[in-house]
Amino acid sequence: MNRQMRRQAKRQQGRSQEGAPAQPSMNMLQQMQEELESMSVEGTAGGGVVKVVMSGKQLVESVEIAPEAAEDVELLQDLVVAAVNDALNKSQQAASEKLSSLTGGLNLPGLT
User: pTM, whole model, 2 decimals?
Assistant: First the structure.
């Protein structure tokens, strides 16, 4: 076996060894994703006049509006937007915290 073939064989061998530790990380990512999917957060606006429950997948699950909010449609619209944004921010923060605990605080592009 010539020198170039040995180098190539070592590189390929190193790749398979490098790939082995990645498997537990993939399992941890999958577990984190499942945890996020099962969680929900609540966003509120107007002192609780509007409440939005959002899943960890950042889908709105429910919206509660206090009856007195129906009197002012423009205010109600603003409150719904604010509550959705509050829930979205909380969901994103929870995902970021879980990911940060998994990556040890590393800032990985596209994951936070």
Answer: 0.66
Question: Beta strand 40-45 with 60-65: parallel, antiparallel or unpaired?
Answer: unpaired
Number of folded domains that form the chain: 1
Residue recorded with tokens 């129906």: 70
Instruction: Kindly state whether residue 110 falls inside one of the protein's structural domains.
Output: no
Quick check: helix, strand or coil at residue 91?
helix
For residues 97 and 66, which has the higher predicted lDDT (pLDDT)? 66
Please state, as a whole number, how many other Cβ atoms lie within 10 Å of the Cβ of residue 42.
Answer: 16
Residue 30's CATH number? 3.30.1310.10
Say how many C-beta atoms besides its own lie within 10 A of residue 21's C-beta.
8
